[in-house]
UniProtKB/TrEMBL annotation:
<feature type="domain" description="DNA polymerase III beta sliding clamp C-terminal">
    <location>
        <begin position="253"/>
        <end position="377"/>
    </location>
</feature>
<dbReference type="GO" id="GO:0003887">
    <property type="term" value="F:DNA-directed DNA polymerase activity"/>
</dbReference>
<dbReference type="GO" id="GO:0005737">
    <property type="term" value="C:cytoplasm"/>
</dbReference>
<dbReference type="Pfam" id="PF02768">
    <property type="entry name" value="DNA_pol3_beta_3"/>
</dbReference>
<dbReference type="GO" id="GO:0008408">
    <property type="term" value="F:3'-5' exonuclease activity"/>
</dbReference>
<dbReference type="InterPro" id="IPR022637">
    <property type="entry name" value="DNA_polIII_beta_cen"/>
</dbReference>
<keyword id="KW-0808">Transferase</keyword>
<feature type="domain" description="DNA polymerase III beta sliding clamp N-terminal">
    <location>
        <begin position="1"/>
        <end position="126"/>
    </location>
</feature>
<keyword id="KW-0548">Nucleotidyltransferase</keyword>
<dbReference type="InterPro" id="IPR022635">
    <property type="entry name" value="DNA_polIII_beta_C"/>
</dbReference>
<dbReference type="GO" id="GO:0009360">
    <property type="term" value="C:DNA polymerase III complex"/>
</dbReference>
<keyword id="KW-0239">DNA-directed DNA polymerase</keyword>
<dbReference type="Pfam" id="PF00712">
    <property type="entry name" value="DNA_pol3_beta"/>
</dbReference>
<keyword id="KW-0963">Cytoplasm</keyword>
<dbReference type="GO" id="GO:0003677">
    <property type="term" value="F:DNA binding"/>
</dbReference>
<keyword id="KW-0238">DNA-binding</keyword>
<dbReference type="GO" id="GO:0006271">
    <property type="term" value="P:DNA strand elongation involved in DNA replication"/>
</dbReference>
Amino acid sequence: MKFSIRRNSFITALNDAQRAISSKTAIDVLTGIKITLSASKLTLTGSDADISIETVISQEDEKAALQIDEPGSIVLPARFFNEIVKKLPEDMMTITIDERFQATITSGQAEFTINGLDSETYPHLPEIEADSKLTIAADILKQIITQTVIAVSNQESRPILTGIHLAYSNGELLAVATDSHRLSQRKITLTDAGTQDYDIIVPGKSLSELAKMLGDSTENVEIRIAENQILFTFANTSFYSRLLEGNYPDTDRLIPQNSETTVEFNAVDLLHSIERASLLSHEGRNNVVKLSLKTGAQKAVIYGNSPEIGNVEEDLSFKKLEGNDLEISFNPDYMKDALSSFGQTDITMSLTLPLRPFTLVPTEDGANFVQLITPVRTF
């Protein structure tokens, strides 16, 4: 096996495939990167058994300047190999593999020799032959992931909540995540999608890595779903993830359908106020911020308190305040995550009682995006 390639193009593909590789894997071969060279393309594969990423560099890619001398395949130690490639002196690099699975990497005057493994020992990627697919713009998919993954649970005691619930039916895709203290739900209409319905749970960790890879691209992502796997295909990359098994909780009943008090804020202004209030709450044993709404006086005040250090009180500016007077306490970190997901828009906060969950929705399009937070008991 022998090929030459521009180092920058190779590093980009190598970094993408390496996202799937974990140093904690129990299978030694999965700490390596699989390199497969055919007559027309170079394929790099990384996997930790849960996530697998395959990225392809074609001989037709002029930027890569891929020159194929002899096809073949090998598995090389990923972290060490990546460090070598990054530090090579020249723009071009050549990799030669001998029959003992020893790789010689040359660039300019530098030459490295490292030991590899037979690629036959590397697990095969899942075969997903589903004809039906969903198509979604990469920037929209990235937005859906970043808006919902914040509510995914980190507790392995309830593994089903460590995933995002994706349900597709009648042209509408619903994404929901909850850790039982907060919930994030996003709906979107897909125009180019199949007729088959789906109801799956994708690990939040997988989707977080996928979102990082999507960048700001506006090209389309194709989604194919098999019995226990999901495949996202975009650009020259195939991203596989296992699915979580089990039934996701019925989250519809958690979202209040009516409210006693509503207030409209600018999301960014409120976020900054909560950041200031949480400076003190983070120093205390109880990380809690209190919001007081007085509709008669048309006043909204936020309080942060740390008995060890002091307290903060700030009058909030708002667009509209209606309903009953209310005081409610919440975890400011949950609130900051939720507000950050709205961007520059105005939001409507709907509340019922001091210990009942409250919702945040964009004022202009409240039907398609909901953040829900459970208050904290302070008495």
